[in-house]
């Protein structure tokens, strides 16, 4: 999984039929110091993340292992909303 | 998924038999500011995207989860045609 | 899928038993302008591509979806031999 | 697999239901000389690794092949705790 | 698949139970000119490669398609020991 911040939304009204009903969020990758690392991904969201929240997400076939993404042509999914992480005992992020 | 623009077409008349009937489009990757990011991919198209349209696409095994790509040696597929996206509340693209 | 040119061959007489009988080709990745992009891959070939021909290839689990690669530890496969591609209406390659 | 050092932890109380009960560790990738290579990943831990320990981890669908990650939207997992590695006969790391 | 040279070994006595009995080799990636390309991977070895030998290896789910890696959390496997490869008719490597 990678750390990322929910940065925006993507609207796509004409979709493959198996993607109908899936909401897409724009995620900006974060490094371990809580800085944008330059990468980004469009991910499905089974947990209801809000803009600005920090999440962990999975890619590849693992992104089809949630109820809302099963058997869909989806290759990135939010797994959880991050409360806190630390590296070497130093807190790098805490959700307010 | 990643954002990309439909940039062209690839013709391949001699194909693995499991790829017969699949149409290939050339996609140029876009960053979140709607600029080409340098990458590109050849993707199958189950949604009927037109040249110049912006799409989201999936890679890997997820690219076989549409009707037209099931069980085929296909590793990239268009999931939807993008109407609009925004980052931090600022609209970055809107389909005309 | 990615565009690549058939550049050479790899001979490996001692293989995992599930790879016996698979022929390996050396592919050099091409960018959309038909220039080498620096990457390369060793791929199985179910279509009988010749040296110098331009192909599209798939990676990952999709590379096991041809008759000759099914259930084998193979992660790259040629899908088709390219006749022509164009970007923005400008032809970038045509097979002679 | 890649070599990495256990560097920290991630807490995510609101998760996809299939991720409940999975503990996430922060891993920093190591090169063959036992130096950080710049990359990092959030991985599930079925072996009980401690902070500072060096591990090998797998990515992708292989990360779902342990008891604690089966059928979960998990794309990185620790496979083992490294005791020692050597390159060209020169020991690069030994667990104290 | 990619070309690589067997450069060393990794010892991990405490492993996920599904990895018990798998031997790990350190592989250094090679470019088409038989020079190290900078990357490396830890791979399972079903063919009995020796130090210094050049091999081709697969990644991802394909790395679970050998007898010794089936259903294991393994994401890289040696497929064969390379005898020779050539690019554009010029021999780049031959096993002595």
Structural write-up:
- The structure is a homopentamer of 96-residue chains.
- Chain A has 96 residues and is mainly β.
- Chain A has a single domain (2-94), classed as EutN/Ccml (OB fold (Dihydrolipoamide Acetyltransferase, E2P)).
- The first copy, chain A, has strands at 2-11, 14-15, 24-30, 36-44, 54-59, 76-81, 84-87, 90-94.
- In chain A, the strands form two sheets. Chain A has a five-stranded antiparallel beta sheet with strand order 4-3-1-5-6, with no helix packed on it.
- Chain A starts with a strand and ends with a strand.
- Chains in contact: A-B, A-D, B-C, C-E, D-E.
- At the A-B interface, strand 1, strand 2, strand 3 and strand 4 of A face strand 5, strand 6 and strand 7 of B.
Mean pLDDT of chain A: 97
Strand order of the largest sheet of chain A: 4-3-1-5-6
Q: What would CATH call the homologous superfamily of chain A?
A: EutN/Ccml
Determine the N-to-C terminus distance of chain A: 22 Å
Q: What would the principal axes of the Cα set say about the shape of chain A? A: elongated
Low-confidence stretches of chain A: none
Strand content of chain A: over 45%
**Structural class of the secondary elements of chain A?**
mainly beta
